[in-house]
Amino acid sequence: MTTTSAGPAPAYGYADLRALMSRMTGDEKHGPAATSTLDVLWVLYDRVLRVSPATADDPGRDRFLLSKGHGPMAYYAVLAAKGFVPVEWLSGFGGYGSPLGHHPDRTLVPGAEIGSGSLGHGLGLAVGTALGLRAQGLTDPAVWVLVGDAEMDEGSNHEALRYAAAAGLDRLHVVVVDNDSATHGWPGGLASRFTAEGWSAPTVDGRDHSALYDAFTAPHPGRPHAVVARVEPKG
User: Fold this and answer.
1) pLDDT surpasses 60 at 7
2) Residue 2 falls within a domain, yes or no?
3) Residue 81 in this model has a pLDDT that exceeds 50
4) In terms of pTM, does the model score above 0.85?
5) How close are the terminal C-alpha atoms of the chain, in Å?
6) Burial 7-16 (b: 16+ CB within 10 A, else e)
7) The CATH number of the domain where 79 resides is what?
8) How many domains does the chain contain in total?
9) What is the DSSP string of 31-44?
10) Does any domain span residue 9?
């Protein structure tokens, strides 16, 4: 499939993301949750994901699911920078009639694969997506899901990650943005939970674009892949 858009590429880069985010105001911004994901999202959309505005409905596209949906400002900024949504939409963030809600709505936001709500469901949805693609014979598209470390307190995620390994879902990729928000923390590091179930699971600096890219693209034949992206603690 092609990954080039029909029109000229948007003239925005990583250096513009903070300015794009500043267009979004209001009391429900969840700023720390958003900024913790900024670098991960940019590296994925700029260098890894095989999807563009022109291919957002192509069956062969990569799928990206934002489970950490309560802080979508960085996600919206990246989608705007890449031409999925108009930049003009950003100033209406969270307002009445705006398609950009405090949680993304897949029926309103071009490029959004899921509507997020209660935390803890994205990994299960990603497992289902990977299984569905396999059942259709679509073995090339990658499925990516971004979760927060606090979401991993939810038992549903551990059921999902255990099943994914047993099912050999090697087109499934999880990025855990770890800002020390989990209730009890993870002795031995969060990656150990994935490796115990047979996943490939490196831990990297979540602000280092080169390290993120290398981890995102590391081979992991026959098993799902998780990347734990460590960022500064929340607050």
Assistant:
1) no
2) no
3) yes
4) yes
5) 42
6) eeebebeeee
7) 3.40.50.970
8) 1
9) HHHHHTTHHHHHHI
10) no
